[in-house]
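pasting for the record
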Amino acid sequence: MATTERIGTGTLEPLPGLEVDLDLTGMTCASCANRIERKLNKLPGVEASVNYATERARVRHEAGVEVLTLIETVEAAGYGARVRRPAGGGVDGDGAAPATAPDVHEQELASLRERLRVSAVLTVPVIVLAMVPAWQFEHWQWLSLSLAAPVAVWGAWPFHRAAWVNLRHGAATMDTLVSLGVLAAFGWSLVALFLGDAGDAGMRHGYALITGWGQAPSDGLGDIYLETAAGVTLFLLAGRYLEKRSRRQAGSALRALAEAGPEQVTVLRQGIDGPESTVTARELAVGDLFVVRPGERVATDGVVARGASAVDLSLLTGESVPVELGVGDEVTGGTVATTGRLVVRATGVGADTRAARLARMVEEAQAGKAAAQRLADRVAGVFVPVVIALALAPLGFWLGTGADPAVAFTAAVAVLIIACPCALGLATPTALMVGTGRGAQLGILVRGPEVLESARAVDVVVLDKTGTLTTGRMTVREVIVDDGAEAEARRVAATLEAASEHPIARAIAALVPDGERARLDDFTARAGLGVTGTVDGRRAAIGRPSLLRDEGYAVPPRLADALAHAEGEGATAVLVGWEGAARAVITVADAVRPEAAEAVDRLRSLGLRPVLLTGDHAGVARSVAAEVGIAEDDVLAGVLPEGKRDHVLALQREGHAVAMVGDGVNDAAALAQADLGISLGTGTDVAREAADLTVMGSDLRLVADGVRLARRTLRTIRGNLFWAFAYNVAALPLAAAGLLSPMLAGAAMAASSLFVVGNSLRLRRFR
């Protein structure tokens, strides 16, 4: 049985058992999705959510429920279903189609395109003949019938078939409205041609003689609607084709993630110096060595075993500048080596790669439903029978007032056609799909639709310090010397610390390149104090003041003052000396990210109040806050890991909606407590799992971009919903009053769906 990994939030509560994704076919509107969802949820031990935009059902079921039962339930409802292969994963255990299998949605798109082309060729002459009297000739109606009949029957067959399938199951969908409208217009035209004034007298009398009906009355049957039957079909086919194509484009970012790696890989099966051979990416196993040449994509996640290269990580982080990687560095499948040749040892393949996990997380977000979408689904579920009743109302009204039957018929058909709920069903999922897909391209992962509401409401953003505002790596901030010999102080300090593995030691060792360091003898490390040794024949020491005093080194007043000042600010300061005297104070601190100040400014411009929350010393916290532009009153220092959640909770109790930005295990509880948890992709897995929004990289400015994207997506959803409701509110009375022809109604209905999809696609240009 194929199951998917539970990663995002979605809209379903956990059920004991398993989870499976089904690819669905045959859905034509939100009512179809609503009906499939109801059918699945009627099964014992099953909870399902169907997304019309992604044409997918996410089903959680108890262990005793067979997947085949789920598929049969969907098929019994008149639709198609098959198990979806997890993004990036190998072959499913139940034989689900691999990524290389023919795409049924592409086949549906090709079929729609063919019907649209043929229908367009046949429909244009019909409309021209009906609209341009100068082009009409004797018996032109029969030519129109010959051209319109294939369109109304074959061209509109997807609508007729879907309507019939649903009718057999006692249901009505948007296709019911379309099919009724087209068949009514075509059937009325046939009656008018054979029995009314539109047909010639000989044909009418011959038909009457054959059928035994006698002479048909001509009053009120003179108008034909062949151009309506053909035109409505053409407009709706065009609308459905463009809508389906647009929805496929909207999901392109997700498909790019799922198919990030190359199909063929060069492997070294006989060791790192062995011969090369070529295999498919699916044949790679954990531990295999494979080659990545300049310009090639990394086949799967791994660790560099030989070579060095600049690697383009933009697929996952959105950052355009390649990163230099060498032996021992981790590489991610789907990224591109831009310079040197790499030999990589695979550490994760198939569904276990980072790109595959990211794709599944995006799928999880797209499969969820916001509260607005659930309302739209309920409306769509009852909309069709209500519209049929509304169509009968103007028909009865106009006939009751003695109006021309053609007027009554026109109003009823227009109501049937214009009331399609497609725009309503597409309003939320298309915007969510495009927004999350664009976020994935930029390195911003939105975990679910609920995040959009949270992002809109937040007014306070709490920022962790270490690893968030700072790089998390110690660097030398300042070197203060007593006698002006700064270069020599750097050289002696770097030489001593080069032999140590302590993070502070590594920062000081970086002061001087390897080739410029002195010769070191008699190296001794003093745990918790520092190190001593002989540098170029001179005894030297570096470390805490107590170490140098114990070794007999004098500390000049200037250096003592500098040391006290640094410690007062909470920074780490060490003394370095040689030949019996301390010569310099070296201050080491966690470096503030170069983009941190700009990131804080961007957050403030979004109406968010930045607050610094850290477990570090108050002096360090104040120094970092001043550097990035956070007010001293908004600094919370010396907070224990378990206290971070309490501070977030306290802000919430004050009435604030809080966003929390962090990257460590100690931030996970606060991230989960916050209204909007945001983690950096460079942080721990625990932090990422607890967050609602993840920035897949180290650029803190993307946090503000993520909030902006979430808010923009929510605005797009609301705009779509407003248009979908306003369209029906405005158009239905016009159609019922007879002020809108059926053909124009079809064009307006198609335009409303295209507007919603097009408005959502604008999110692809988000920067």
